[in-house]
Amino acid sequence: MNKYWSETIKGIIPYVPGEQPRTGRLVKLNTNENPYPPSEAVLEAMKSAVTERLKLYPDPNCTLLRQAAASYYGTSPEMVFAGNGSDEILAFCYKAFFDPGDWLLIPDITYNFYEVYADLFGISYQTIPLTPEFEVSVQAFAEPCDGIILANPNAPTGKALPLIEIEALAKNHPEAVVIVDEAYVDFGGESAIPLLPFYDNLLVIRTFSKSRSLAGLRIGLAFGHPDLIEALIRVRDCVNCFTVDWIAQAGAIASLRDETTFRSNLASIVNTRSKATSLLRAAGFEVIASSTNFLMASYPGLPAKGLYEALRSRNIFVRFFPKPRIDQYLRITVGTDEDMSILLDALTDLT
Amino acid sequence: MNKYWSETIKGIIPYVPGEQPRTGRLVKLNTNENPYPPSEAVLEAMKSAVTERLKLYPDPNCTLLRQAAASYYGTSPEMVFAGNGSDEILAFCYKAFFDPGDWLLIPDITYNFYEVYADLFGISYQTIPLTPEFEVSVQAFAEPCDGIILANPNAPTGKALPLIEIEALAKNHPEAVVIVDEAYVDFGGESAIPLLPFYDNLLVIRTFSKSRSLAGLRIGLAFGHPDLIEALIRVRDCVNCFTVDWIAQAGAIASLRDETTFRSNLASIVNTRSKATSLLRAAGFEVIASSTNFLMASYPGLPAKGLYEALRSRNIFVRFFPKPRIDQYLRITVGTDEDMSILLDALTDLT
């Protein structure tokens, strides 16, 4: 700490991302990356964008990317915003829609960044407990508020909320902005994008970091009423007009055009998830049925922290959250079959 | 405007970047990009970074880039921060060092974003007039404050402040953070980086968008005491842990290693600047002596706005700022000799 730091920064607890270890041989199942690489077509599109044009600022409006996304998702470009990863867009949302004194509702167990943003920008919030089964209860989100933010499917629980319940949140809170982070929806949730024509208070956030194998490129999208998108554009133009570089715009467009690889990788992950869930259960683990590319698993009677550390010493990285209610679980990214086999062997050995 | 917008966003005037026209044939001298492309070595380094590794999150700490920058600038990696363009870093500075109620001093004529950030984050500020000769007067910045932010050389005036005066600002304000934006320093200013060991309140910001021909890639750096850098890291980790993608990290490192092309392009621009200054003066323009890659030029008796529009209709894009004191000037990026020749022919025709 330092006398030059702002009071906000002195007091805040930043988000702690999963480790990005740089050692050579490891099984990395800790940050929900895709085990399958971007396709050759996507890599080629990025290479083709490495040209002399990089001397010029990128298109600040990501025109072609927004057109491609609108076409892919059946909406219009003015309902699409592109950012340098979905985290950037989520942060922009807090400045776009909320002022100090506003009141947000956030699930008590979800992506920790939602609370960090609120702390950073001085927005008040209440955490709403998930049910004992880790479900989002729409009834529990009944109280008046200025905004609701949640992930669907939720992280790190892996549980998805039916679309009708997302719709209920938007319908019950016409004065609030309801932000649905669909980082994991491609793995088994129902997207709220089809609801957008009916709810001008609904914003859907997507990332290319999980299902599209592009965590290293940094691409996120938001979908919503043009007025909500315009607010995000205003925030961006108060921060950094050019957040998505030329190469990222090209890679994201190519990803949206490569449906075959995308679907094939998703199918592989869902298949591996199903097998790993069964095998973990057979090995004595309790595993939450997952709609995402990760599993929450606990072993009755064995502290998760110890398992996490033991795995780590074997160069197998999973995630452990020292947080009430979930500190008995390991969060395990669904990797390849081989990754999961190595993990299962180690866990069998450790339990 | 919309009922869901935050009060801040309803009231704010975002930064207006120079146009990024997409028409084919034009002379683009409006956003201070480098007329020379990144070298083959830099392009190859980026292409080599387009690999399967993009499925993984990038190194959040930009370890290799910070090492390369520390080595290049003669400092240490813990005194370096890397961001998605210098604008992102500047925005982070406002959250890192200032709270509402704090008081900033900003030159009245400078990069307009400094005021936009203050408006966005609710930081109070006073604009300090430049002298009639568009000089920053250190005496005018004497009053107590929590921060000073200025560009050196300044934009859009193109004038540089001697290092001894930057030092005086840091020395006179030991309780304030003094932020020096050196976006244009490679074209003719004196960098304050050598002062950093002596002033723990001094932060120097750099961009790869101008002198390094990488506007389309988005890379900025900050240099300062490790405590200041740590505050920027905390802000980043409250917003978006991974702001600089793999390819940008690789391109930036390669740029720092390609001194020959860098120096050669700088020399060409400085040479063209010198010739264009003489020719514009010979054509009747008043031209401020520039330490940057742009010129501020006015033609006595002819409104700059009209000239700007007339050039635009000929597909020659320069910048015009409808702002007191500078609304008689065109800001003209120094392009290639050929660009400047086309511009001069048009201006001769129009005056």
From TrEMBL, chains A, B:
Pathway: Amino-acid biosynthesis; L-histidine biosynthesis; L-histidine from 5-phospho-alpha-D-ribose 1-diphosphate: step 7/9. CDD domains: AAT_like. Its EC number is 2.6.1.9. Residues 26-347 form the Aminotransferase class I/classII large domain. It holds the Pfam family Aminotran_1_2. GO terms for molecular function: histidinol-phosphate transaminase activity; pyridoxal phosphate binding. Its cofactor is pyridoxal 5'-phosphate. Gene3D superfamilies: Aspartate Aminotransferase, domain 1, Type I PLP-dependent aspartate aminotransferase-like (Major domain). SUPFAM superfamilies: PLP-dependent transferases (SSF53383). It comes from the Bacteria. The modification N6-(pyridoxal phosphate)lysine is found at residue 210. It catalyses: L-histidinol phosphate + 2-oxoglutarate = 3-(imidazol-4-yl)-2-oxopropyl phosphate + L-glutamate. One of its GO terms (biological process) is L-histidine biosynthetic process. Keywords: Amino-acid biosynthesis, Aminotransferase, Histidine biosynthesis, Pyridoxal phosphate, Transferase. Belongs to the class-II pyridoxal-phosphate-dependent aminotransferase family. Histidinol-phosphate aminotransferase subfamily. Homodimer. This is Histidinol-phosphate aminotransferase. It comes from Paenibacillus stellifer. The gene is hisC.
